[in-house]
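User: Thanks for the earlier help. One more: Winged helix DNA-binding protein. Can you show the sequence and predicted structure together?

Assistant: Of course, both are below.
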Amino acid sequence: MRATAQQVRRFRLYRQHLAGRDGGDPVAIARRLLGVQAQVPSAAAQAVASRTATGRADDGTVDDALTAGTLVRTWSARGTLHLLAADQAPALLALLAAARTWDKGSWQREFATAEQMRALEAAVAEVLADGAVLTREELTAGLVAHSGHTDLSAALGSGWGAVLKPLAWQGLLCHGPPAGTRVTFTSPRTAVAGWPGLPDPDDAARTIVPAFLAAHGPATPTAFDAWLLRGGTPKARLRRWFADLVADGTLTAVTVDGEARYARTADLDDLDDLAAADPIGIRLLGPFDPYVLGAGTADPDLVPPGHRRKVSRAAGWIAPVVVDDGRVVATWSADDDRLAVAPFDAPVAVPDGERATWSRVLGRELTAPA
């Protein structure tokens, strides 16, 4: 099958609940997207609410799902914090854990040795036993005491969490409920009733690769791995995952403007129908939106290369963007309740409906651009 980049963008807009703002509850949205980046909690809440017809970022539905254990907040794709559907999290974490990026000499020289990591893996089970919920300071003190590695205190206490991420990927810890403004940690077995542990990574790939393509496809294996682990998955394993899914008919090769990609076989008719569909038009997306992060700002079909720095900014900040039929054409802000648009090239007219959508999401009336 042959398709165009325009079809791909439209497919993603529909599948990610951006074409019709027709998403359901936060768990269903997180499951469809394979996680919502939550390094900035307000951005995650906006990403969820903007995919619904009535949601607000401050409506408490995300916190309710975290409290109920149907959502989990933990380090996931690309080493960043995400909201994950609890029933999908074990499979996604299994792929991250399988790469064992912390076994690399460069990682160990910068963060912790192999012996130190083994000690932490044993210690965390003891520290977070019996339903414990600990602040970062309490977790650090406990891990140091149980592992005997006082030299890891600074690394364990760092807000970047570099030494904690491998523990999260192995399903040994996740974020717990907030204690005021303080972050807490607990075991997934405490946060999620009936937590099953991590599956075999090859079995997990049979679930996660098609789920990724259902929302972010058609895509190449390289694009999938860039989204998952910034290219950290062993290449032979990555090729085998895709080859096995093609062999059993789950995936089909698709050529997109001359590039070989893969789509779920079940999605081919929907993708084909979008060739003659009406343009989707202007949509406003919030900071760190999964639509942008799924493809990555280096994708020239999404972000014009000459404007990438306006979207991907210093310190890893991903700006709110305006997309026209799925392609980024501007950034935007809403300081002082006035919608301000910074177009890349031609002027961008934001429809009143989009301004109303974001007034609802943010809980404050946005006035039209001057």
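User: Great, one quick takeaway?

Assistant: The first strand starts at residue 2 and ends at 3.
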